[in-house]
Sequence to fold (907 residues):
Amino acid sequence: MAERNPPQSVTLNVNGTSETLEVDTRVTLLDALRDHLNLTGTKKGCDHGQCGACTVMVNGRRINSCLTLAVMHEGDEITTIEGIGTPEAPSDMQRAFVTCDGFQCGYCTPGQVMSGTAVLEEFRQGWPSHVSKDLTGNADFNDEELAERMSGNLCRCSAYPGIRQAITSVATKTKEAAE
Amino acid sequence: MTDMFRMDKPQPRLFDETVQGVIGKPLDRPEGLLKVTGRAPYAAEVPEANMVHGVLVRSTITRGRLTGIDKSALEGLSGILGVIRSPEFVRNSAQGMANEAPIQPEDHVAYFGQPMALVVAETFEAARDGAHRLRLSYETEHAEIDPTTTSEIDTKPDSFGDLDSAMAQADVTIDQKYSTPGQVSAAMEPHASIAWWEGDNVTLRGSYQMLRFNRNELADSLGIDPENVRILSPYVGGGFGSKLGIGSEAVAAAIAARELGRPVRVVMSRQHVFDMVLRRSETHQRLRLAAKADGTLLGIGHEDRVSNLPGEEFSEPTAMATHFMYGGENRLYNHEIARIHRTPSGSVRAPGEAVGMLALESAMDELAEVAGIDPVELRLRNLPEKHPEKGVPFSSRRFEDCLREGAKEFGWENRTPTASRREGDWFIGCGMSGAGRANMLVPSEARVTLEGDRAIVETDMTDIGTGSYAILTQIAAELLGLPMDRVETRLGDTRFPGASGSGGSVGAGSSGSSVFLAAKKIRARLAEAMGCAEEDLTLQDGIARSGNIQKPLSELAATAMTEEGGIKPGAMGKEFFQAGFGAHFVEIGVNAITGEARVRRMLGVFSAGRILNEKTATSQCIGGMVWGLGAALTEELQHDPRTGGIVSRDLANYHVASHADVPMIDVRLLPERDDQANPMQAKGIGELGISGAGAAVTNAIYNACGVRIRDFPATPDKIIAGLEALGR
Fold:
C-alpha cells in the first residue's frame, strides 16, 4: 500500500539560515519550527489561529504559523523569536518587555514580542486599523490603536498593560532617535 | 529531614533590619530574558531521543460504559504504534493537593469529553489522524446534566443567630439572586507531558503547579512507589488552578511510555484542555442583607448551588469571603452541590471569592442604593472588629485605608448619579467593590547553599508566572547580603526539597519562608564564624561586618555552607484571621445602541503584608483584576443541553479578555507588615486582585445606565434588554 502522506522537501530561510526539511505535508509551519528545527520559542497555544502565541514573520509580515503548512513556504524568509534576539543580546523590544514586566508565565510572550515588533513597522508604513479615524493617512500612535492591533495576541496572565507600555517605550525611543 | 519551623508566635521583622536593599524592590525577573527570547523550555519543548507522540481520544457520550474499540480505520496509516488504554487511566485531573490518584474509572464514562484512549504514533500528525479515526462504542446510561433540576444534591447548611428575624426587623433589606456561568483557567500553555522510563523509574516533564503532590498522585495512579517518580516543571505556561493536580495526559504518557519502551509526549489540544481539565463551577446564589437605616448590617445570608461530578470532593466555596468581609450578627449559609455529569469542577483562580464576591459586592452596591448611602461609606460602616464568626482578631487589615485611599486617588467624589452622564452614544459611570482573600500557610521546604559569594536556592517550588524565581532570589540575596546576580534559584524538580507549590496564593509566603529560614541558618553560621551575635551581623554586597570587624563571604564561606529550611502552620493561623484586603474602582462606558460595555479606567488598592517584589506583585494584581473584568463582561462556558458537553471549547468561543478589552490599569500596594503570617510578614496576593473586581465593573454599569446585571457575564444582549425595560 502506498504511503498516504509521503514526505515532501521544502527549503525555508529561517532567521537567515537556509533549512531544507523533509516533512509530512500535514506539518504546520509552527510544528516544523518547533519539532523539526527545535526552534521552540514559537509557541502553540491553540493550533487554531485564536491566540497568537505562534506569531512569526514571513517575508516581513506577521502571521499565525499554526494556520499555514510548512510546504507552502518554499523559499520564504521566516523570522522567529530566536531571530529577534538572544538572552545575551536581546532586542530593544525584548529588553523593554523585561523592564515593563510585560509577561508573567512567558508562554504567550514570544508571540507578543513578534507582534509588537511587527506592529511598529506597520505603523511606520502607515497601515490603518479598525479604530483608525482616517483610513488613508497615517494612524496616530496611541494606546487605543496599539490595543486594537495587538488584540490577536492573548495573554491569560493578563500582562496587557505592561506589554503595551513596553511597545510604547520602544516606539517613543525609536521616534526620538529619528528626530 | 528538615526541621520544620511552626508558626506559633508573631515574628520579628528581620527584613526591616537587613541592608542589601533588594527585598520589596520592583526588580526584573531573573528568568525574564529567557522568556522574552523564547529560550525558556516549557513542558513539551525538551524532546527525548526516540520520542513518540500521543493524542488523547475523548468520550462522545455523557454517561455509560465503553464496550469496544474499533481500530480498523487506523489500518494502513503509516507510523501508528498503538492504541493505549489501561485501567490506570484517570477520569480527570486530580483536585489540588489531593496527593492521591484521581478516580480511575476503567470502562465507565462519567462526562462528555472524558479521556478514553491514547493513539500513539511516530509523528504528531499521524497520531492526530489516528485519534480522529478511532471509533469507540458504548452502552449509554441516563445522565443528569442540569444543576438546576438534578435530583442528587448534597447540602451543607451553616448559621449564626437568626437571619429571618434580622430581615424582618431591618429598616433596609436586599434579597436577590445572582448567577455566574462555568469558567476555565485557559492557561496559554496547553497541558503537556513527556514521560520516559529507566528501569522502574519514570521521569515526567510536565506542566504542573504542585510537584510534591503531583509526584504522589502520579505514583498512585501508576501503582508505583513515589521514590520511582521524578517530575520536572521548571517553566509553567500559566496554571491558575488548572495544573494543580496530575492530569490525564501525564498518566497516559507514562503508561504509553512503559508499554512501548519509548519516551512519549502527550500534548492536549486546546479543545481537550476545555473538555478534560477541571472547570470552575457555575453558581446560583441568593444574597440577603438586613441593615439598619444607617446601613449597619444586622445580618447576611449567602446561599449557593454549585455542581460537580459524583465522587469529586471539591466544591466551589462560593461564600468564602462572605464569612469575614462584613459584620452583622445574624448569618446564614446553605451550600448545595448538585451532582451532575459535566466536565468536573475544581479550583480556578480564587475558588470561592472569584464568583462569590461578584454576588456579595453586587448586593452591597444594591444595599447602598436602597439605603441612599455611598457604596464606599457603606463598606466603611460595616468593618467588623473581629472575624464575625470565629471571633478571633484580624492579624492585619488595611481594608479601611484601601477604601479611603482608593476613593481619593480614583476621584470617587466626582461620581455622578445613576444614568446621568452621557458622552454621545455612551453612558458613563463608576463602580467600586471591596476585595478580600484569606491567607494560608502550607508546609514548605527549601535548601540554600552559600559558597564563597554565590548562593544557590533549591526547592521543588514552581513559577507559573507568579514571580517565584524573582522573590526567592530576592529573599536569599537580602538575607545573605548578596547582589541578585550572585544568587541562582533552581525550581521545578522533585529531587529538590518539597515546597508548598503554587496555588491558593500560598506560594510566596510558604516557599518564601522556607528559603528565608534556610538562609537565616546560614546567617547564624556566618555570625559564628565572625565571632559575633547574629543580631550584630550585617551582610551587604558579599561583605560581613560586625563592629569594626569586616570579612568577605568568599573567605567565610570558602567551604560551602548548605542549610535546609522548612515551615508549617501553627497557632498564628488559629488565633488570628489572616487575609489580604483591597478595593476596586472602575469607570465604564456603556453604549446606548449596542449595549457594549467598555472599561475605561480601573484602579485597585491592596494590602497584603510585606510586598516582596513590587513589580511582580503589581503584575499579579493586574492579572487578577483583568480576570475580574473578563468574568464581568465576557467569560462563559456553554454546555450542550443534550449532553452537558462544553461547546464553547476554544479561545474563539470562550472569550478571555484581550488587549482591546483592557485599559491601562492602576495598582497601589499599601505598606503593611503581618507578623502573624510568617517570618517575612508577607501575605498572598495572586488571587486578591480578582476578588470582587468583576462586581466593580457591573456596579459601574449600573451607575452608568441603571441596568443591574445579576446574571453574569454582562453581555450586550442583557444590557440592551435592561435598557429597553427602563425605556432608555
Remarks:
- The radius of gyration of chain A is 17 Å.
